[in-house]
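S1.2 Input.
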Amino acid sequence: MKKRVLAVLLTSVMLLGIAACGKKEPDTTATIGISASDNVSGESLSVGAEVEQFVNVDIPSISGGRETAVGLYNKYFEGGIMDSEEWLRSLEYEALPLYDTYLTKLAEFEYTTPEVQNLKNTFLQSSQLQRDAIQDVVNGIKNNDSELLTSAEDKINQSEELYKSYEESLQSICSSNNIKINGTIGTATDAE
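S1.3 Output.
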């Protein structure tokens, strides 16, 4: 009976995975450059320098752990792990600790301009909700609780809204401070 309930829960989890729970790290590695005209205002250069540091240096420097965690989550859906118990253990004992380390490092980044502080906080909140969604999936499977799977889906939706807000804020900061964006700021890719 327990295996049957677990199978139903795993089917629900699979639907969550397809719906975006395994969202990959947004591609924020687009080059954000500061043109010579930005040197006219010291504030623009400070905001520009901090935006460039956050988007081009800081986030990419810590994203490896999160990418590994998301990879472990996606492995079940890609057929990379043989059984659901092994997948559950990898989420609980590998993916979540990696995600926790990622969040700790993200929280430690400090910026002096309010614009970039707010940008980081929005990005951090979005990332925290993704991590909490994975925790809900783990707890939902362990406790045969479908309400936790619904909670995970809600958190993913909230995370996506916060990420959209992050992208809009980044665009606005770049626009108002004459920061030139080379390429795209980022696109979130859903898991298969």
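S1.4 Remarks. Residues 28 and 65 are 16 Å apart (CA to CA).
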